[in-house]
Specification:
This protein is of the alpha/beta class and 540 residues long. It has three domains: 173 residues, Rossmann fold, CATH 3.40.50; 136 residues, Rossmann fold (3-Layer(aba) Sandwich); 175 residues, Rossmann fold (3-Layer(aba) Sandwich), CATH 3.40.50.970. The chain has 20 helices and 20 strands. The strands form four sheets. It has a seven-stranded mixed sheet, with helices on both faces. Helix 1 packs parallel to helix 6, helix 3 packs parallel to helix 4 and helix 12 packs parallel to helix 20.
């Protein structure tokens, strides 16, 4: 029994049975231990950003962490953008970063780096195992820390000699057997939700009653929900509160996991553009936060405020991510006299399959007409995907995973992890062409693992969001050289060839009818597919 095997067994005993990895020399004993711990599934990613993004997608759907194995500081650095997104989403992720052997670090080898400084900004918990004998216990502690609430990125930095050295004792974690049986959850504080994630601490009844009094006052108010409040149970309670008090119901701009579709209360998302968000919040006297942050502008703009809360509007928090968020909403519903019957469920007809030239709105309508029951949508469509949310509002019930931290390159990896977490559910990745190129290697992992992911690439030949931002930040009129930095049309990306080169069937569509036919075929057949939707150049 060496340290690496003990670490793997400790993870399995604590409920982690999937590890996304891009290993190097320092992690070879961990890789070798996979043959001794068959309960752990190893999933190879060809780039660290795929590994960390897939762990994020897995955790959002499974409600429990996956592990992400990375090689030294440079490997962690390559995966940081999607760890940033996972941290913002409060996703439970256990990151294992291999390090040089303890005695080797003094020699300042070429790959030596300050791993702690890289890990701290994206980790809610960080530990250096003291010995091979501590690794199983360290694994259990990492899983418990990652699980929260709220969920977080928990990082173990494991020197190579601690991995390869023998364990003294049985290598058990917290009394758990060191065998390779089925994983069990590590219990945290508070009661457990249906998905196995800890629900959190109960919110003080006085806080609930005080907020209920504010909402019953008749003054303009809004509930802003996010985090774990965007599950169906939370949305039903929030919708009942809204209906009973007249308060507006809003959702954070980029929710980590929003349940939506037929039968689920519709919720208006706060707009990305500060001007539009300001209009949504205008006139409010009270803003109630439910596992959400007070709204701010995504960027600073000359002459415009960063804080989007209207002047004279008070901000109160009903529940944070550490609390029993759904329980707090249910308590508020009871306090304001909200109906216990299902409230505000989305009803209506799907769009008809579109016809004619292919536009961003036609792509959205085609998806709205075809989206299967129980689908999971990873949304990184950016500007070209603007219409998809509205066109899918009446589709069968599904989950919507958003770009929580704003660091692009998340969509394909998150879809990959979600598909592994829920292999019986179809997954759709909405991808802008520029964002797709950050982590395109995820397609190879999808092909290797046989994952049921349909990727729609919105091909408008540009970084269209930056074209919009160029005009909004007051940088002045753009010239030819400036516009060239936002252009993806010289040469135009061939996503069909790129996907096929990684083993994924792909098709290029230029009409709405072709889009509808390709979606039907992809949804009817298991495994990954890519549809390159060729649009007009620019914003829409």
């Amino acid at each position: 029994m060496n340290g690496a095997r003990s670490l793997l067994q400790g993870l399995v005993a604590a409920g982690v049975d999937t590890c996304f990895m891009n290993p190097g020399t320092s992690e070879m004993h961990f890789v070798a231990a996979l043959d001794d711990v068959p309960a752990m599934r190893g999933v190879l990613g060809l780039f660290e950003g795929v590994v960390t993004g897939a762990a994020d997608g897995y955790g959002r759907i499974a409600g429990r962490p996956a592990a992400a194995l990375l090689h030294l500081g440079p490997g962690l650095g390559n995966g940081i953008a999607n760890l940033h997104n996972a941290r913002r989403a409060h996703t439970p992720v256990v990151t294992i970063v291999g390090d040089h052997a303890t005695y080797h670090k003094a020699f300042d080898a070429p790959l030596e780096s300050d791993i702690d400084s890289l890990a701290r900004p994206v980790s809610g918990w960080l530990r250096h195992p003291a010995s091979p004998a501590s690794l199983a216990v360290d694994a259990a502690a990492a899983v418990e820390a990652a699980s929260g609430p709220p969920g977080t990125v928990a990082t173990l930095i494991v020197p190579a000699d601690i991995s390869w050295s023998d364990v003294v004792g049985d290598g058990s974690a917290d009394g758990a057997p060191a065998g390779t049986g089925a994983p069990r959850p590590v219990e945290g504080a508070g009661r457990w939700k249906r998905d196995g994630a800890p629900a959190g601490d109960a919110v003080d009844g006085g806080t609930v009653d005080e907020i209920a009094k504010i909402l019953r006052s008749g003054e303009p108010a809004a509930l802003l929900v996010g985090g774990r409040a965007t599950c169906a149970e939370g949305l039903f309670a929030a919708a009942a509160v809204s209906q009973a008090t007249g308060a507006k119901l809003l959702c954070e701009t980029f929710p980590a996991n929003l349940e939506r579709g037929a039968g689920v209360p519709a919720v208006e998302r706060l707009a990305y553009l500060a001007e539009m968000a300001t209009a949504q919040l205008e006139g409010l006297r009270h803003l109630i936060l439910v596992d959400a942050k007070s709204p701010v502008s995504f960027f600073a703009y000359p002459g415009k405020p960063s804080d989007l809360v209207p002047e004279g509007c008070g901000v109160r928090t009903l529940a944070t991510g550490a609390d029993d968020v759904v329980g707090a909403l249910s308590g508020l519903q009871e306090s304001v006299g909200g109906s216990n019957a299902p409230t505000g469920g989305t009803e209506g007809r799907r769009p008809e399959p579109p016809a004619g030239p292919l536009t961003a709105q036609a792509v959205a309508a085609a998806l709205g007409a075809a989206l299967p029951e129980g689908a999971i949508v990873s949304d990184e469509g950016n500007t070209a995907g603007l219409f998809v949310s509205g066109e899918t509002a009446h589709a069968p019930r599904h989950n919507w995973l958003c770009l929580t931290g704003g660091a692009i390159g998340q969509g394909l990896p998150v879809a990959t992890g979600a598909a592994l977490a829920a292999p019986d559910r179809p997954v759709v990745a909405l991808e802008a062409d520029g964002s797709a190129m950050y982590t395109l290697q995820a397609l190879w992992t999808q092909a290797r693992e046989g994952l049921d992911v349909t990727t729609i690439v919105f091909d408008n030949g540009s970084y269209a969001i930056l074209e919009l931002e160029l005009s909004r930040v007051g940088a002045g009129a753009s010239g030819e050289r400036a516009r060239a930095m936002l252009d993806l049309d010289r040469p135009r990306l061939d996503f069909v060839s790129l996907a096929q080169g990684m083993g994924v069937p792909a098709a290029r569509v230029t009409t709405a009818e072709e889009m509808t036919a390709q979606l039907a075929g992809a949804f009817a057949e298991d495994g990954p597919h890519v549809i390159q939707a060729v649009l007009g150049k620019g914003l829409f």
